[in-house]
Amino acid sequence: MAASDSKQFSFDPRYVESLILDESSVQSQDFAGGRALLRNYSKIPEDQIARHVFEIVRRTSAPSSSSAFSILVDQRRESLNHDGYPSIVERLKAGATFLDLGACFAQNFRQLAVDGAPVNKCTAIDIEPGFFSISHDLFRDSADSLPARFAGGDVFDEEQEIWRDLTELTDVVHASNFFHLFGLPKQKKIARLISRLVRSVQGSLVLGLQLGANEEPGDIPVVSEEDPSYCHSAETMQSLWTEAGDDAGLDSRGLEWIVEVKKRPVPERNKVGLLANPNLVEVMWNARLGETTKGF
Fold first, then answer.
1. What is the mean pLDDT of residues 5-27?
2. Measuring CA to CA, which residue among 119, 121, 197 is closest to residue 162?
3. Could you please report the per-residue DSSP string of 226-262?
4. Torsions phi, psi of 124, nearest 5?
5. Phi, psi dihedral angles at 254 (to 5 degrees)
6. Which of 7, 178, 190, 237 could form a disulfide with 102 if both were Cys (CB 3.0 to 4.6 A apart)?
């Protein structure tokens, strides 16, 4: 798959503006999850967190820094508030491998460490690997103290070495705030790649949180007006993963993806610009490999 399938996102400026951190937003309830992580993992005193975050923001020149730092605001919603999170912690304690796609600052690995899960079998991948060096400054740790794997990777270039290294070796994949950046053809490529990365055994798991359709699924502008994203219903999400699994040959091994979807309202603070569309909801989902029912 050609790397040229990738794109640099031009986010709706109204939404980006709403993500800009200031003193009041860092102290707000929305940032409570990010503050707790910096306090509990990085051991930064509460009264020093805002100054520390702004120092890192000023020092970074990453093109997506505004949206990237906003992920800390969303820390509570993105990982801790997913129904599958407690089971991930237990699986990692039992030796499972974990892949975080579009990992940004790999904040989820730091949360896993706080919750007692080992991270030595965790891999973080982002198309902008510069975020990982920033993350060590942000969380005041190092590759020695956080022995996870960090790598740059392009999901539309399946020939990259990182994907070959992970093929059939991954137990759990996390992909939040990721699929809804793309139209359906590209989502299919990503789902097919993931279907090749996971172990071909019952119980392999993919999960995430993304924007979906409250009523009619289809192309809805999420990132920009010019480049609509495909927003799913429960039925189209199942179809996406069924097709991806078949393309990856899972059906020939007696396996298929079983998808569960839960809808919830978009948080009020995120209903800005394109995200104010009343047909948009947040979708918490997981796809688990199970025994195929085809032919029965």
1. 60
2. 197
3. SSPEEE--HHHHHHHHHHHHHHTT-GGGTEEEEEEEE
4. -110, 130
5. 75, 25
6. 178
* Total-model pTM: 0.90
| b/e map 21-42, b = 16+ CB within 10 Å | beeebbeeebbebbbbbbeebe
Exposure string of 126-161, with b = 16+ CB inside 10 Å and e = fewer, is: bbbebbbebbbebbebeeeebebbbbebbbbbbebe
Give the rounded distance of the alpha carbon of 85 from its chain centre: 13
Bridge partners of residue 212, in order along the sequence: 281
Residue 30 pLDDT > 80, yes or no?
A: no
Mean pLDDT of the chain: 86
| Backbone torsions φ then ψ of 218, nearest 5 degrees | 155, -170
The whole-number pLDDT of residue 268 equals 83
Which is nearest to 292 in space by CA: 243, 252, 261, 238?
Answer: 252
